[in-house]
Request: fold
Amino acid sequence: MKMTERAGMEVSFAAAEAVKLCNVDVISAYPITPQTHIVERLAEYVANGELDAEFVPVESEHSALSLCMGSQAVGARSFTCTSSQGLALMSELLYITSGMRLPVVMILVNRSLSSPLSIWNDHSDVMSIRDCGWIQFFVHNGQELYDHVFMAYKLAENADVLMPVIINVDGFTLSHVFEPLEMISPGKIEKYLPPYVPKYVLHPDDPLTMGAFTLPSYFTEAKKAHDEVLKTSYGHILNTFNSWAQVSGRSYHPVEKMYAEDAETLFVVMGSFAETAGEAVEAMRKQGKKVGLIAIRLWRPFPFEDFCHAVTGAKELIVIDRALSSGGPGGPLASEIRSALYNVENRPQIRNYIAGLGGRDVTIEDYILMHDNSIQGSDYEIYGLKGDETSA
Amino acid sequence: MHSTSVYAVKTLPRKEYFASGHRACPGCGEALAVRLVQKVLGRNVVVAAATGCMEIVSSPFPQTSWEVPWIHVAFENAAAVAGGVEKGLEVLKRKGKIKEQKISVVAMAGDGGTADIGLQALSGAMERGHDMLFVCYDNEAYMNTGVQRSSSTPFGALTTTSPVGTQQKGQLTHKKNMAEIAVAHGIPYVATACPSYPLDLAAKVQKGMDADGPAYIHILSVCPSGWGISGDATIKLGRLAVQSGAFPLYEVENGKYKITVDVEELLPLEYYFKPQRRFRHLSKEMTGQIEENVRQKWQELKKRSEGD
Ligand SMILES: Cc1ncc(C[n+]2csc(CCOP(=O)(O)OP(=O)(O)O)c2C)c(N)n1
Ligand code: SF4
Ligand SMILES: [Mg+2]
Reply:
């Protein structure tokens, strides 16, 4: 029997397939473009009896995550999914989910935040909740999204982690494209991801109080404990990547590298940028340019050591952000990287481009242009503005 | 079925599930109501609470007053969290992951967490038909944050955001009728209650718990600190609220109205208003106007409960 099969399908449907294979107990979500296809497909699975779960179509994203927190608190494997404004509406609860150590998994189909309203992709939604205390991944393609769903549950439910996980996937650019995917057999998933055995649950047999408030005498310690768990989850994340590699043959790393060893200039990106940037790097290498690529897969906990290690040989980093910290230092990714490198000797120079906002394409040629140009008199540049002849 | 007569004071369970030692103000009507509700609900229950006085007085880490499983997430979402608890328990039982047994699911919130910021989540939960009981502990203002008005604050009442000044005399709007909003959702059981009538309250909690689907109980909870009365007047004030018609006790079972504590002749509203600092600024005429309104509503309710 063949162990794996390849199937061409829309990435959103592949994500739904993965959630189904995880045998989740409760799904709750509220529609928002471009998240809809994932949730609609899950609703169908439940309606057809292909997935034995409760599908709860709530009246807002705020209630979607609240409901998942309630179901997770009684020990039910729970899933939610949103984008953009939906995430903004949930934001209050994101901090509470992680603080209460409820291992909900969410796919965040990245889309810009209004205003102006745009249904298209960028990372302004996730950057608005950067510090919410969830483990956060960025995926580069549909196969990775599919794979990360299994890993997310494996990791979130690990009794030494117990943290919610967000998987970021670029809206439309990834969520709505067709991709040939290697599917995993249900049998393998059953072994990889056994039924959830929760550590703490709400049940009359052992009454617990969840969500107590603290006075100043405990609050700081609670925050410290949270930070500590996120940091130590790093080792578990590596283990999860490794165990998944054994199941699927695909290995992932917190920081993905391409031609990084001998590159003088390194692009640093997240999400689907990695695919196009990768092609651009191949093209430039053919022209003899010493370029390489770093893609940050693990956004939280931020892999400071891995990152620094990966870039120390380079002279320059071109950090491309898909979000803008308005009135601030440029892009949020570049900020993180600047602070990561501050204490590193002979650290590379940093150029920061803000690109691909609100669904604007960033093509192979754009990467080449960014590489060949320079930024004058500023720490960052919003790339590709209309009337700017340096780019198309 | 159960009726008020099923309960006599001595038959109320002795066991406390909302333990003493909580930090409510002396004479707090909400704490008393919570205590009674939990007695009736018993041990096989999961409670989801909204932010507010009852949450704050009962759960200062590392202490808790809760002897049943209890969760607090935020201010506006008790109904949604309870919905998740209910769905979670249902699916886990169906899949054989936890043992089959009846576990009641209860959401609790103040009037703010119910009628204002929590109304959307509550409406959603009632509309979807979760098998849960939602209890609103109505002290007629946002007490936890220092007595600000809510949509449940009665007309004329003084709060910190419905002040008495030269241009405005207290709350300018009429109390939102939450029980009727719940009734409009077509849910199987809706009731009003007050801990000054503990047996009536207990019977209603029992019915709400037994109802197949969403149930809603709106409990008038006298708040000595916010209303400006002494802590030993709580029970009396609750009775006066009912006897004056300001807060009628009734239930709506599958759409059928019934006044459960009938009042032959309503007491003057003044009896209820007078002891309270929040109404002290009202002139006789103002009180008279409010009383007219109260009596009209009472008559409407009477008509509805005699209707069929
Ligand atoms: C989103 C949000 N807004 C505001 C608050 C502040 N807040 C906490 S409790 C509360 C008032 C609670 O009033 P109510 O629901 O009537 O309960 P009570 O304290 O009167 O029992 C407010 C405004 C909050 N916690 N969350
Ligand atoms: S302020 Fe009112 S409701 Fe809150 S604890 Fe004190 S008496 Fe009870
Ligand atoms: Mg209140």
About this structure: The beta strands of chain B are 45-49, 70-72, 104-110, 133-138, 189-193, 215-220, 250-253, 256-259.
